[in-house]
Write a structure and sequence with these properties.
The chain is an all-beta fold. It has no helices and 11 strands.
């Protein structure tokens, strides 16, 4: 797999439609989506930075709480860092790595792809779609 983690036996990754490509602008609003992470329903978010789409679990590594300071707003005023509204931890939009503040590691990355004007997120053994 792209993230270097071998899939669990019998696991078949799926691509889940997230949004139209035009919905994500550089350093702009995120596209939210529901995901089951290790058995718990959580929010994920996708952003565009330097022309590329990245997605993460909406959970600060310092304290596991949602990070957006307004709905779907994660970038600081410079547009170059993702910031946790609660504690001020900052993260790289490209890698999710902690760049400052009270971080305890990186954000949990969610694989994405973009093709024919559509952004998709990819399931993993620990990341599943919410069944409706």
């Amino acid at each position: 797999m792209a993230d270097g983690v071998s899939p669990a036996p019998g696991f078949a990754p799926q691509e889940m439609v997230l949004c139209n490509s035009a919905a994500l602008v550089d350093s702009g609003e995120a596209a939210p989506f529901d995901v089951i992470y290790q058995g718990q329903t959580c929010l994920g978010f996708a952003i565009r930075y330097d022309g590329t789409v990245y997605a993460y679990l909406n959970r600060c590594s310092h304290v596991p709480m949602e990070m957006d300071y307004q709905p779907n707003r994660f970038f600081d005023v410079s547009g170059h860092w993702l910031i946790c509204a609660t504690h001020g931890a900052t993260y790289s939009p490209k890698t999710g790595a902690c760049s400052g503040g009270p971080c305890r590691g990186a954000l949990i990355r969610i694989a994405t792809s973009e093709c024919d004007g559509v952004v998709r997120w990819h399931t993993a053994p620990h990341l599943q779609p919410v069944k409706l």
